[in-house]
Write a structure and sequence with these properties.
Blueprint (H helix, E strand, L loop, with lengths): L1 H16 L6 E16 L9 E3 L5 E11 L11 E8 L8 E8 H4 L10 E2 L5 E3 L4 E4 L7 E15 L5 E10 L5 E10 L3 E8 L4 E3 L1 E11 L6 E2 L5 E18 L4 E11 L6 E18 L5 E7 L2 E3 L7 E7 L8 E8 L3 E4 L13 E10 L6 E4 L3 E19 L3 E5 L3 E2 L9 E4 L3 E8 L5 E12 L4 E4 L9 E3 L3 E2 L3 E2 L1 E8 L5 H6 L4 E10 L9 E4 L4 E10 L1 E14 L11 E12 L4 E9 L5 E5 L6 E2 L4 E2 L4 E2 L3 E9 L1 H5 L6 E9 L6 E2 L5 E15 L1
Antiparallel strand pairs: 1-50, 2-3, 3-39, 4-26, 5-16, 6-15, 7-14, 8-14, 9-12, 9-13, 9-16, 10-11, 10-14, 16-25, 17-24, 18-22, 18-23, 18-26, 19-21, 19-24, 20-23, 26-38, 27-37, 28-37, 29-40, 30-36, 30-39, 31-32, 31-33, 31-37, 34-35, 40-48, 40-49, 41-47, 41-50, 42-43, 42-44, 42-48, 45-46
């Protein structure tokens, strides 16, 4: 048997190898291409549908329009003050120094009569030598003055009249004269003073005091001689404003500013602001060779939970190196603080839109020798920036506003064609959680379908008169004021409005903020306050359709390794199982990997899906209907099959005789595409 089979097999090979023409045959290749389903979710998104207990569906769609933040009403401007000062206010302490030229120094022979009573002869002593006086610790090492005074007081402790006293005060190093003068007829145990300007003078800390001439009269009879008393000189400096100085500087204020900064809010008058966030901005540039302390405060403020704790901040600017600059920058957060905008006091006008600030730039006593000059400068940028309010209290002012913004409606995003509704409701919830009255005048609400260019104005007697939204109440908690307007087919053209299937809502609303004034500037606004129109559409999903389109896109692959050239043609079968009580025409678009259309099938009046029959008792379909649609594939179309990567299936739904049908959540259209190709075999 095995031998016979082998003989037959080799015989066939020989016969075939001797033929001059190929042998061909045809076979049918039947295979499913895709399966998919379409349901109401492809028309109405799940997010806006509500399934009732009987599986019927209501459409519920909500959107809002209006002001949702206090920052939409009020912007607090940045206020940065710039203080740039040289050290024109720099001062040195008033100081004094005393030196004595004794009788023993004036008249050495008087040593013979110390503590004795005798008659003293007159003397006329002249000298060019003086006493070196070191006032470095008491005064300064060196200084050149813009202004200031040196006071010279001479006490005559001698028991005789000083007829002539001539003195000179000079710098010890270069012998430059600072002051000189002459006093006459100074009686015993008396003193005489004079003041001398130090403007434009350079004074060193090591001075030389010369009493150039002392001329005394004879004593008026015998006198008690004390050789350690004589001419006592007191040197005092006061009101010193140095141009430059090397000294141990005393503690002092370089800047001392108390300001009321005015804010502009476009007619609003605010008395109090609680900050959600914000900063004190500091930027310092200094060439001063001494550390500078900056004290900044807002006395009329407090921190949340800490009443009585005002906002204050201290910075220390390090000393600059000689000939260099020092820079300091910081953004100090101040969220949680409440600032009163009544200025320095709420007892004096104005009591709104003013913030009282204090700034001191000071040098503290360091005990370190420093060199400072008028050329040294400090520049301070300081203020409040990026303020975001959590609460504003005051008078917002009367404002007339208009709004004609466009609101997008996604209610009918997946719907095209014509729609016939059974019923619909629209609730307008006017919501005001601002502590400010607002009068709304709804001029019009227009809907537009940008897909077909049609528009319609919503008309209702409920919208003819202005609506007063009263103030919210903050006890706390914050309780908003709400006002509702309900529209339906009995008091408006809402049904026709929605049958337009608008995807744009264009309200034109005029608002008057604070139309009736305010009492004691006690209106308020929180950062969570809102002035909204909450729009809610609600309708049973019972409608009629005219060319309403439902579409689905599916990925497909017709061939893997098969030779497309061997396909002569064939048919595609589209089987549709329909739960909907609606018939529909179809179209199937075949696309390549780039999404470009190659060809379309199942389109035209001859391709229609039949509707399922409705049970009049339940208003629901009894059982699905099955439709089979057939399309012929040409040889040219067959050659393109290997390029096809996706298919768009579109179903155009239509109801008959303007009937409206109630829709249920379990309604579906199941689609199955089957190919039956004629395949050519070559031997």
């Amino acid at each position: 048997m095995k031998q016979l089979s082998a003989i037959v097999f080799f015989t066939l090979i020989l016969l075939c190898s001797c033929r001059k023409e190929k042998f061909t045959s045809e076979s049918n290749w039947v295979a499913p291409v895709l399966e998919t389903s379409l349901n109401l979710g492809d028309i109405i998104p799940d997010s806006i549908s509500r399934i009732n207990s009987d599986n019927s569906i209501d459409i519920v769609y909500e959107t809002s329009y209006g002001v949702s933040s206090v920052s939409d009403i009020v912007q607090i401007p940045d206020t940065v003050e710039i203080s740039e000062v040289s050290l024109s206010s720099l001062t040195l302490d008033d100081r004094s120094f005393i030196d004595t030229l004794t009788l023993l120094e004036l008249y050495p022979a008087s040593a013979l009569f110390h503590n004795q009573t005798t008659t003293l002869p007159g003397q006329d002593i002249q000298t060019k030598e003086g006493t070196v006086v070191d006032v470095t610790e008491e005064f300064f090492s060196t200084a050149t003055f813009v202004s200031g005074f040196i006071d010279i007081t001479i006490f005559n402790d001698l028991p005789v009249v000083a007829e002539v006293l001539e003195f000179e005060l000079r710098n010890d190093d270069d012998k430059s004269v600072i002051v000189n003068g002459v006093f006459n007829n100074l009686q015993p145990n008396n003193s005489v003073s004079d003041s001398y300007s130090l403007a434009d003078k350079k004074v060193n800390g090591i001075l030389e005091l010369i009493v150039k001439r002392v001329k005394t009269l004879d004593s008026d009879g015998p006198v008690l001689v004390d050789v350690y008393k004589g001419i006592r000189t007191e040197i005092s400096v006061r009101d010193l404003k140095p141009k430059s100085a090397t000294a141990i500087f005393p503690a002092q204020n370089l800047i001392d500013k108390k300001d009321e900064i005015e804010y502009y809010f476009g007619g609003a008058e605010f008395t109090q602001v609680k900050l959600k966030s914000g900063f004190i901005k500091l930027k310092v540039e200094s060439t001063v060779e001494e550390a500078i302390v900056l004290d900044y405060s807002l006395p009329n403020s407090f921190k949340d939970g800490e009443p009585g704790t005002s906002l204050s901040k201290t910075w220390t600017v390090p000393p600059a190196k000689k000939g260099e600059k020092i820079f300091v920058e910081e953004m100090f957060p101040i969220g949680g603080y409440t600032i009163y905008f009544w200025g320095k006091s709420n007892l004096e006008n104005p009591t709104f839109n003013h913030v009282y600030t204090e700034l001191i730039a000071r040098i503290e006593y360091s005990g370190i020798l420093r060199t400072l000059s008028l050329e040294d400068k400090i520049r301070v940028e300081l203020g409040l920036v990026d303020l975001i309010p959590e609460l504003i209290i005051g008078d917002p002012g009367r404002h007339e506003l208009s709004s004609n913004d466009t609101v997008g409606l996604k209610l009918f995003d997946n719907v095209s064609g014509d729609l016939s509704l059974e019923d619909a409701k629209m609730n307008l919830n006017f919501y005001n959680s601002f502590g400010i009255e607002t009068l709304l005048d709804i001029k019009e609400i227009k809907g537009q379908n940008t897909r077909n260019g049609k528009s319609l104005k919503l008309i209702s007697s409920e919208l003819l008169n202005p609506i007063l939204l009263k103030k919210a109440v903050n006890n706390p908690p914050l309780v908003a004021y709400e006002y509702d307007v309900m529209l339906d087919k009995s008091n408006s053209n809402l049904k026709q409005f929605l049958e337009l299937m608008p995807n744009k809502l264009m309200p034109e609303i005029e608002a008057v903020v604070r139309p009736n004034g305010t009492i004691n500037q006690n209106d308020f606004a929180f950062d969570v306050s809102e002035l909204l129109v909450n729009i809610r559409f609600e309708m049973p999903l019972k409608f009629g359709l005219d060319n309403l389109t439902v579409a689905v896109n599916e990925s497909v692959t017709f061939f893997n390794d098969e030779k497309v050239d061997n396909i002569k043609g064939g048919q595609l079968f589209l089987k549709l199982i329909n739960d909907f009580p609606i018939s529909g025409r179809t179209k199937m678009v075949f696309k390549d990997k780039m999404g470009e259309q190659l060809f379309e099938l199942f389109s035209g009046d001859n391709y229609e899906m039949t509707a399922a029959e409705v049970d009049p008792q339940t208003n629901k379909t009894k059982s699905p209907t099955e439709s089979e649609l057939i399309a012929t594939i040409s040889k040219d179309q067959a050659k393109q099959l290997s390029q096809i990567k996706s298919i768009d299936l579109e179903v155009y739904l239509n109801t008959e005789d303007a009937k409206r049908y109630l829709m249920f959540s379990d309604y579906t259209i199941n689609a199955k595409l089957i190919s039956d190709f004629i395949y050519e075999n070559n031997l």
